[in-house]
Amino acid sequence: MYDMGTRKRALALVDQGRSLNSVSKETGISRAAIRSWQERIEPLPRMATSDPGPPADERAYAYLLGLYLGDGCMRGTGYYLRVACADAWPGLLQLCREAITKVRPGIGVYILQKQGYGMVTSYSRHWPSLFPQHGPGKKHERTIALEPWQQKIVDVHPWEFIRGLIHSDGCRITNWTTRVVAGAKKRYEYPRYFFTNLSADITRLYTDTLNKVGVDWKQSNSHNISVARRASVALMDIHVGPKY
Q1: Does residue 63 fall inside a structural domain?
Q2: 17-26, 41-50, 65-74, 138-147 — which is least confidently predicted?
Q3: Is residue 170 one of the residues assigned to a domain?
Q4: The domain containing residue 223 runs over which residues?
C-alpha cells in the first residue's frame, strides 16, 4: 500500500512524458500499480487554483477547445485533462499533444492507451479554469456555453476552433454517384464534411462559427451538420482538411 505522496510523485514523473517502464525502474513501483492509479485517477490533495492567466498560445487553445468539446473530459479532482483520439489517426494524436504543450508550455503529456484509441492526458491544477465547461454529467445533458474570453479567442481563430471540432466529432468523406452522359455511364465523386454531436449547444457553437467564416451548411437531423456546397468544401479543405 503506497501513501498519497508516493503516488503523487510517480504520477508526476509520468506527466513529464516518462514511460511506465522508466518510472517503475526509478521508483521500484510496478507498472501495474502505476497504471491502476492512472485508471482511477485517485483524488490528490486540493491545491489553490489561482488564475492561470490566458493560454500561452491562443491559436492552439482554440483548436484544443474544439477537441475538448468533442472528445475531451476531466477526471478526478478535475486536474486531469483527457482527449480521446482514435489510433486510426496518429497525426491527430500528435496534434493534440502539441496543442496542449503550446497552451501550457513545459507541462507533461502522455498517452493512456485503450482498445482502439489513446487518451491524450495531462495534469494541471489550472485545467478547470481554462476549460470552465467542465462539470458533472455528460456534456449533452447540461448547458455548454463559452465564457466571454473564450468567445474572443474563437472570434480571432475561428478556423482553429472548427478544425478541433471536426477532428474530434467530424470527418471529411467522398460520396459518389453515376450519371449517363452521351450514352455512357460516368462516375462522379464529391467530397463533403460531416459533424455529429448530441449537444445542441456544441452544435450551435459549430454552426455559428461556420456562419462567421462564410461556410454554408445544412442540418440533416438534430445531431448532424453537413457541408456539401463546392465553394464551402473548398474553404474547409484549405483550413481544416481530412484527419490523418
Answers
A1: no
A2: 41-50
A3: yes
A4: 151-239
